[in-house]
Amino acid sequence: MSDCLFCKIIAGEIPSNKVYEDDLCYAFYDIDPQAPTHFLVIPKAHIQSVSDVTEETAPIVGHIFAVIAKLAGELGLESYRVVSNIGAQAGQSVFHLHFHVLSGRDMTWPPG
Ligand code: AMP
Ligand code: ZN
Q: Could you list the mean pLDDT of each consecutive 10-residue stretch along the chain, which spans 112 residues?
């Protein structure tokens, strides 16, 4: 999608601090970290949010979770939180599906 920030990051049109990349997904550090470790994992396909995941695209999401587990292991994250905001009221500001991975500090529940 030409006017999507994260599609531009995947295309290399906007710089990012890459953590990992494969055919299906891209991971990079959040520009405004909310924890000592905070990166995002996104599908290369433009999917707007969890609400737009279908049976056809669900395997990409499964793959992303396997990647999150692998990266967390490699980065030595013993405890972490995976978050995906859906819609503006829940805090979604970029409408390209992404999973936040946050770690390295005490976290509260319920989230704000
Ligand atoms: P959300 O608010 O859940 O849609 O998450 C979007 C995230 O993207 C926020 O945590 C932003 O800090 C992050 N973000 C926005 N622009 C960039 C960028 N150019 N590089 C890295 N992260 C970004
Ligand atoms: Zn996009």
A: 94 98 98 98 98 98 98 98 98 98 97 89
Backbone angles phi, psi at 83, to 5 degrees: -130, 140
Tell me the ligand closest to 7's alpha carbon.
2
Which atom of ligand 1 sits closest to the CA of residue 9?
19
Quote the pTM value: 0.98
Which one-letter amino acid corresponds to residue 27?
Answer: A
- What is the 72 CA–ligand 2 centroid distance (Å)? 24
